[in-house]
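Researcher: We plan to redesign the surface later, but first we want a full-length starting point. Tokens attached.
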């Protein structure tokens, strides 16, 4: 049995992530990925057999990395407001680097809902929901179903990113200008959700 060159395998995965998450080319084929990685399609197929196998691997690794980072913030002992600020910073920084990652993840979950039942749930979400309820009781954030707080938080963070290409065209904004706009939102979101 030949020894696997994990460097080439990782290069292919990293290239696929860049194509899917940074460039937004969700329909790129294996030849596109092989060309961008500077490898033959035969080598790509050796490691991943099909595009579906590669996509599944990229999805699982991206989902694990995302939930691990979110879990670390949710499980931390920092004050709630600092935790939300860290959450926003983490999410928007990641999104600036990989603006199409959420689109990719959502597309894959919708396409393969049965395959990915456990990947999308952070382990410490219950603790975070309890903290949201406690902050509402203390009067620090508006009272509502804690799920609405989470939906509002993610909507404020992700919607401008998903709509980025349309906003850039509508307002004639460069990528750099739009990144500055998104970075300004970090403080604005906190002001909107805390009383």
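Model: Full-length starting sequence:
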């Amino acid at each position: 049995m030949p020894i696997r060159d994990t460097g080439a395998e990782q290069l292919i995965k990293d290239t696929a992530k860049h194509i899917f998450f940074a460039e937004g080319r969700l329909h790129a084929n294996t030849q596109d990925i092989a060309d961008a990685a500077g490898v033959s399609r035969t080598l790509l197929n050796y490691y991943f057999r099909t595009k579906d196998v590669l996509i599944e691997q990229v999805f699982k690794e991206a989902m694990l990395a995302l939930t691990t980072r979110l879990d670390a913030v949710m499980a931390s002992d920092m004050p709630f407001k600092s935790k939300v600020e860290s959450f926003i910073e983490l999410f928007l920084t990641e999104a600036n680097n990989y603006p199409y990652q959420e689109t990719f993840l959502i597309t894959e979950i919708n396409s393969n809902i049965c395959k990915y039942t456990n990947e999308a749930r952070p382990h410490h979400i219950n603790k975070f929901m309890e903290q949201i309820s406690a902050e509402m009781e203390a009067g620090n954030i508006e009272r509502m179903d804690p799920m609405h707080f989470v939906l509002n938080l993610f909507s404020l963070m992700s919607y401008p990113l998903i709509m980025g290409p349309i906003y850039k065209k509508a307002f004639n904004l460069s990528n750099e200008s739009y990144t500055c706009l998104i970075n300004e939102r970090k403080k604005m979101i906190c002001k909107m959700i805390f009383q």
